[in-house]
Amino acid sequence: MEEKLREAALAVSSAEGEAFYEDLVTALASILGVEYAAIAVYTGPDEKRLRTIARFAEGRIVRSVEYPIAGTPCEKSMGHAFGFFPAGVCKRFPDDADLQALRPEGYAASTLTDAAGKAIGLVWLMSKRELSNRALTETVLKIFAARIGSEIERQAAAEALRVSDAQYRAMFDAAADCLVLRDADFRIVDVNPAFLALSGSRREDVIGISRLTRLARPEQEEHIVALHRRALAGERVQFESVGTHSGGRSFTLEVRGVPMTHQGRPHVLYVSRDVTERRTAEALLRASEEQYRAIFNASADAMIIWNRDYRRVDVNPAFERIYGYTRAEVVGRGFEIFSPEPEHVDPRRELVRRALSGETCRMELSGHHKSGRPIVTEIHVVPFQHRGEPHALAIARDVTERKAAEEHLRASEEQYRAIFNAAADSLVLRDAEFSIVDVNLAYEAMSGRRRAEVLGRRDLTMSTPEMNARVRGLHERALRGEPVQFEARAARKNGESFSIQVRGVPIQHRGSPHVLYIGTDVTARTRAEADRAQLEAQLRQAQRMEAIGHLTGGIAHDFNNILQGTLGNLSLAAERQVELGDARLGKYLDRARHSAQRARELIAQMLTFSRGQHGERRAVELPELVRDACKLLRSTLPATIDLQANLEQATPALRLDPVQVEQVVLNLCINARDAMNGSGAIRVGVRKPAHIQGVCASCRQTVDGRYVELYVRDTGPGIPQPVMDRMFEPFFSTKAAGHGSGMGLSLAHGIVHEHGGHILVDSIQNDRTKFRVLFALPETVPEDAVAESSPAQPAVRARARLVGRVLVVDDEETIRDFMIDLLAGWGLDVVALPDGAAARDAFAAEPKRYDLVITDHTMPQLTGLALARELALLRPGLPVILYTGYGEDLSARDLREACVAQLVRKPIEPAEFFPLLAAHLPAAAAAP
After folding, report:
1. Fewer CB atoms near the end CB (10 Å): N or C, the chain?
2. Is the residue at 585 inside a domain?
3. 362: confidence class by pLDDT, cuts 50, 70, 90
4. Per the structure, how many domains does the chain have?
5. Which of 543, 566, 598 is the last residue of a domain?
6. With 0-12 CB in 10 A as exposed, 13-18 as middle and 19+ as buried, what is 757?
7. What are 753-800's pLDDT values in tens digits?
């Protein structure tokens, strides 16, 4: 109770300023531990209503209110020195709506009186819990009531004094705070010199303005005007603003708005105080406190702060862990909590005394855990400033286990020897001079040397002299207390080499510093790590090639759409050329079509690389295939390149795609030509089956088996390693812009791996490069199949006539235009739509209108396959032709379930497409 009364006295004596009443109700609620407190005064001469001039509710100051006295606890308390309802206040005053809304349990109040003893108001409090200490509550309320009554009377007297204009002006101008008086329309009526000095303005420039001055920022205006309206209604307001000095310096102002009457009209007086330095200091103090608390709580050692009364002010969580006492049990108490005995208290008290006098001291002390368990602590006590006053900071480290270990080690030399020799790792103990003091049995087994051979040696017994110098440096660091570690190649006495990992641990041996070196044979682990690294490289390469394959497939698909429009329109032009009979135009169209066909073959190979398409394979003789490719190459290579073929005939027939394998040979030879800058020698060869080992240069897989080898060797400058790592990526090229697409080696990679083969690369810098293409032998010799020749270019003929209405669906405008021209030229009625959703809706509107649907597969929102399924539900038996560049992704089951009549690959050939349409339309007319 004494402490509470002391706090009350301190609160009422220190309260001052504009927040006088707010500070008092806040302090009152805190001292008595209640949720609500208020100061209320009469609002009129009839003394039937009260108005709060300060009100605290649940942790904060809230808006003042006015209320009738009748039916409230205030009615029973007004005029009495003390009113007290410890419990059940809501039941006693059921008509008090405000009381019922808050639902308090207890209420107490003390009457405010003026100097003549007349009641002028109340100071009251309410609690959500029962008020148990009547004496304390009554005493504290009376202390506050006396101070508040005198302050109200003082303020009334001061208000009477302010009616004097001379006094008003003197006080206004003399104020150290910035004063601004604004009328009901927010216009500035008056300012004081402090305001003019801070804002850098002249009085005549600001009087009459109704906007913010330089003491606040424009974005605050709406908020401040709203507060102004509240102040005009009688409420005191407070806010902070950020202003700018005339010199450009920013500052923070604490502003209070006080309602007042000036010349008979309501005004608001704004009192501003520069709190920039205070806010900065508060922020620094908070940061310092947070930093102190973080360090204090994070320490692994126990920390105790002692004051000059030898009482604990604070302890950290490590203290609770080491000693077993909670913070609440020890804060505010002295040494007696552990033991009152002098032999316990005196040395600890002496440490704190010396630290309080400015001395740093250290001592090792024995004590007890709360549970009674003995502990040994190493205590370091230093002078410490805490909240501006001298304190002592004690740092205690639990060394119980360390001391026990030291005692145990000293007590049992034989046990040390047993453990030393039982270790599975090699142990070597060296002294400060690097001399070997001891080795264990595992060392003898690992090194092949006996203990007697190595004692006293000052070199590395299993490593090189160069390593000896390095380890001597590590030894010095270990002697200073730093654990060290290294790996090296070691050799046994018989010369056998192995990998060893060594850790050096500083230890005390017979009272002097030594280093214990622990050696582990890591040969198997090193080999396993190397194997794992190789597997990881293979995985990364496979993932990279897979991603690049997806990219290439996407590009090829888009290019296929472009080629569809190009080849289709060339076919239409060729048909028109027949009608015109222009032979020269026909020659031009043939050339254009030939170029487009070459582009089509390139796209086919890109799709092969991306695994979007598979080449057509048949049994072929690899030497004959390579010989034909070399004949084609001779006419394209410059005369300065010597091309020779070395073809072994004793090779079994392989099941290959001849066009694709020929492309591999051409790409590798062109790559060799460019590497030699057009001058040198190229050797192309085929070797009979042999056992080959190595690592594939493109997929990084290990190669080990029997293969037929196709090689291309050049006399160029070789391939640098950075280029070797990336040369199979599509579009990667070391050539200048415009000199190569970067697709040659990537296509070769795709073709070879599609055939189950690999590519090895032997390159010597500034000498030569050799690409070795390996084809796996078939499990059984395939039967020779008759090679199918490339389909001849269909002869251009006049347009035939078909009958029917066709719905064409494709998201490419070029292809839609081509299909409209092509099909309309054949006599069909064509409707073309840009997406599957539009086609579905159009078909649903007139299901009987169309005889045939031709749709692309890869379209946004609704694919061609999904569209076919939905159309089949609307009209079973409708023939649907699906064309795509990704046909291999569609299984026969998918096509059958979607009721697709025919799958056609892009780009379509009109000559092949016509009979397909004729087969699915109800009728067709003969060609004219």
Report:
1. C
2. yes
3. very high
4. 7
5. 598
6. buried
7. 888 899 999 888 777 899 999 998 876 544 443 333 334 444 444 445
